[in-house]
Amino acid sequence: MSEQSKLEMFENPHPQRDYVITIRCPEFTSVCPKTGQPDFGTIVIEYCPDKLCIELKSLKFYMQSFRNKGIFYEALTNDILDYLVQACKPRWMKIDATFTPRGGITSQIIAKYESEK
Fold it and tell me: Exposed, middle or buried, 86 (CB in 10 Å: 0-12/13-18/19+)?
């Protein structure tokens, strides 16, 4: 698999209406760049599509591209947001990344985007 899988889109069937799409990725994994240990978390993607919607199979492959990548939570949350916004140009988007405890500490990172329309 390539380092970053190509995301596919499809036309929004109701571009005249604001509505919310929520996608949950409960088995997200990446690697801690400091320890090399796996990190496990849930990524929730919420967005209001404009002209395009994210196709789920390609999103699954994109999310799996982080499986062996050493990256901090804060960077990966913002990288996911930047990549998805660039790909589908939503009216708004929010990425909520919640990771399982490591050493008794949990982390939740939330990144948001709003279009300037």
Answer: exposed
